[in-house]
Amino acid sequence: MKNLFFTVWLVAFMAFSVQGIAQKTKMDSFIRNLMNKMTLEEKLGQLNLSSGVGALPVVSGKGGKEEYIREGLIGASGGLKSEKIAVEESRLGIPLLSGRDVIHGYVTTFPIPLAMACMWDLGLIEQSARIAAEEASADGINWTWSPMVDIARDPRWGRIAEGAGEDPWYGEQVAKAYVRGYQGDDLSKNNTLMACVKHFALYGAAEAGRDYNTVDMSHLRMYNVYLRPYRAAVDAGAGSVMSSFNLVDFIPATGNKWLMTDVLRKQWGFGGFVVTDYTAINEMINHGVGKDLESVAVLALKAGIDMDMQGQAFIGTLKQALEEGKVTMEEIDGACRRVLEAKYKLGLFDEPYKYFDKERARKVILSDEHLRIARKVAERSIVLLKNANGLLPLARKGTIAVVGPLANTRMNLLGAWAATRDTSKVSSILEGIKNVGGKSVRVLYARGSDYTDDPYMLNVNRKPDLPRIVPDLHKADALLKEAEQVAGQADVIVAVLGEPRGWSGEAASRSDIGIPACQKKLLKAMLHTGKPVVLVLANGRPLTLTWENEQVPAIIEAWHGGTEAGNALADVLFGLYDPSGKLTVSFPRSVGQIPVYYDHYNTGRPVDYSFKFTSKYLDIPNEPLYPFGYGLSYTSFKYGNIILNKTKLKGNDTLVASVNVTNTGKRAGEEVVQLYVRDPVASISRPVKELKNFKKVLLKPGETKTVSFAVTPDDLKFYNSRMIYDWEPGEFDIFIGTNSRDVNEAKVYWKK
Questions:
Q1: What distance in Å separates the CA atoms of residue 565 and residue 567, rounded to the nearest whole number?
Q2: What is the rounded distance in angstroms from the CA atom of residue 616 to the CA atom of residue 639?
Q3: Using CA atoms, how far apart are residues 160 and 199, in angstroms rounded to an integer?
Q4: What is the dihedral of CA 550, 635, 373, 503, to 10 degrees?
Q5: Interval 697-713: pLDDT, tens
Q6: pLDDT band at residue 361 using 50, 70 and 90 as cut-offs
Q7: Torsion angle of alpha carbons 366, 367, 371, 374, nearest 10°?
Q8: Is the N-terminal amide bond of 393 cis, ω within 30° of 0?
Q9: Looking at the domain assignment, is residue 646 inside a domain?
Q10: Is the same domain home to 578 and 670?
Q11: Do residues 525 and 584 share a domain?
């Protein structure tokens, strides 16, 4: 029977391989014949992405965007009109790629990616991407500039909102889930999007957390931490990759041949195409690696860039560069071929209008099912940070005062990169509390404060010809007094504070990531009433909450939760859903700790608070306020000791590590059980612990489940000082627990 199964499997595998080879041969023949008909200008046109915003093409003697499309000088744009011009009015009828930042949903907007990562539910993450693809693909989009898989350990960086957090292993799993969700099992179907992995590479490590800033790190850190999610996305079949703005080894990523060709194509075998981020080629001049647009365009093409986003560098200079012998026709053909292959894989040459379907768009966009999933995702993204004396969940009775500048806003709940900004189905947090609380709950509201009264923040992006914004102190006093009056009538206060959507995402770095002073003043006033206060955070990054953690009895991290944010938050507040989210990024006590992350390395003098001459601060503990993997529930869980199937292993043995987890509370709840491993003695210094797996389990009150993890030598591998990926024999520490800090420990010895 076993031999029969193997024979059937082998026949199926060979048939699949033969089919794949035949399909590739067919594609190669089609692309080769098409390229034989193309002029140099038409080939360069395929390398030109004009998004329709910002500067239009500027090549001498040409008109605007539509004329460019007619002459075959744009390879990617958007909209049915542009597609029809390309297909019906250009000489060769080559269809356009239509790309967009579909980051966390399309019209149905899910929580920001950082929040979704806190679900620890890869299936739901994949489903959110699938829904985004369903909606966007019906609206003319076939390419998404997502997922963003940058490892981010600095919450000052606004784009931390767009990724999965600080851990490379978890980042790998999330990256693969997004690619599967967007691209499905057949990219040529009309409900798929080609994924574009970004930002390659290391963008999340920008110095000082300042967007677009310099990055510098060793190759060991690159390979062991920062490069891993990109490779996982490539291995999952992502069709395209986007270059980042930053330096890599002191060379801009967009012009870095080692990164784009040696690593991405040769080491990882990537066969898709590479697009720049917005005007990244042009910006290499500011980096000081080229004197003019032609010189940096040459650098980018030779590095392995295939498409120029909006900069007009390739279309504007490469013809002259070819005549001058600075680039070769082979290099231009290679880039053109990869772009055309992407269009072929999407099926655009057979059905160029397949992604424009108004009837399908009407059915799928903001459908009841999509909204149901969005609410489910938003509920599970919420992290309970504190719940003193069981203040939560709230009873659905009495009077609730809802205060704060983020309590009655819809747009801000969508977060950064909300593709359509459609708020027609969005419920604010105030509305969500009313919806879920029902008639038995009296809900009062007061804004209480503005987002900020900091003159610098109010004017930082203001054009110089406009009058400066001056904080209105009389208005601020009136808002606060109104909130105090409302709070005086309530049994409990829900204060909704944090960041508007424009304070996170691209170009939204903050040096002070605390709750702004005017909002904090409101919170203090609410606490001064003596009423129970629940602090709800609506934000796009970790915040410094040391004072709040000491003073406020209950704190909920609700993030920017998307279309269903208000209803989902109310479900959690009233206990219709028991919170199960866990942080995927550490929350610092102070910006002075940054970067702070759980898988750090020990120094020669590890922290010892009883001895002065060790690695620590004098004013705060080393540890973050809330560690990676942290999150509370309305119930409680007890972990037993780790049970091992063996303590001495050899070669390719499999270690099975198990733990009994018991729900010791009175409510059913979900727990994310986390497995970490440490290699305490190795040829290079290794982290104090590394996440290797997790399981999310549902437990009824009093129920115990045994949670088991399989560990193999593959889980022990790392890049050593010779850049060899392997594992080393010796003793290993196995940790299982509720977060990266609170774990049980066991030891094993593993020989080769």
A1: 6
A2: 30
A3: 12
A4: 10
A5: 999 999 999 999 999 99
A6: very high
A7: -70
A8: yes
A9: yes
A10: no
A11: yes
The phi, psi pair for 446, rounded to 5°, reads -150, 140
Q: Residue 561's domain is classified under what CATH number?
A: 3.40.50.1700
**Helix axes of 368-381 and 565-573: crossing angle, nearest 10 degrees:** 50
CA–CA separation, 138 vs 351, rounded Å?
14
Same structural domain, 528 and 648:
no
- Whether 256 is in a domain gets the answer no
Q: Cβ-count burial of 237 within 10 angstroms (0-12 exposed, 13-18 middle, 19+ buried)? A: middle
Same domain for 546 and 462, yes or no, is yes
The domain boundary residue, chosen from 593, 621, 653: 593
Angle at 244 between CA 238 and CA 248, to 5 degrees: 115
566 lies in the same domain as 665: no
Q: Is 512 a catalytic residue?
A: no
Q: What is residue 54's predicted lDDT score, i.e. its pLDDT?
A: 44
Q: How far is CA 463 from CA 466, 468, 469, 503, 504, in A?
A: 6, 9, 11, 18, 20
Pairwise CA distance, residues 142 & 126, whole Å: 17
- In angstroms, how far is the first alpha carbon of the chain from the final one? 33
Q: Residues 121, 139, 167, 277: which is the catalytic one?
A: 277
Domain that holds residue 577: 376-593
**Rg from Cα positions in the chain:** 27
Identify the pLDDT of residue 3: 66
Residue 416 three-state SS: coil
Cα 392 to Cα 158, 408, 486, 664: the distances in Å are: 30, 21, 21, 17
How many domains does one find in the chain? 2
On the CB side of 672, CA atoms within 13 Å amount to 29
- Rounded Cα distance, 201 and 271, in Å: 17
Q: Is the pLDDT of residue 601 over 70?
A: yes
pTM: 0.96
Asked if 566 and 651 sit in the same domain, the reply is: no
Residue 187 domain-assigned (yes or no):
no
Picking from 586, 572, 606, 576, the residue whose alpha carbon sits closest to that of residue 541 is 586
What does the pLDDT look like over 520-571, one tens digit per residue? 999 999 999 999 999 999 999 999 999 999 999 999 999 999 999 999 999 9
| 714 and 585 both lie in a single domain | no
Domain closes at, from 593, 610, 626: 593
| 480 and 380 inside one domain | yes
Confirm whether 650 is domain-assigned. yes
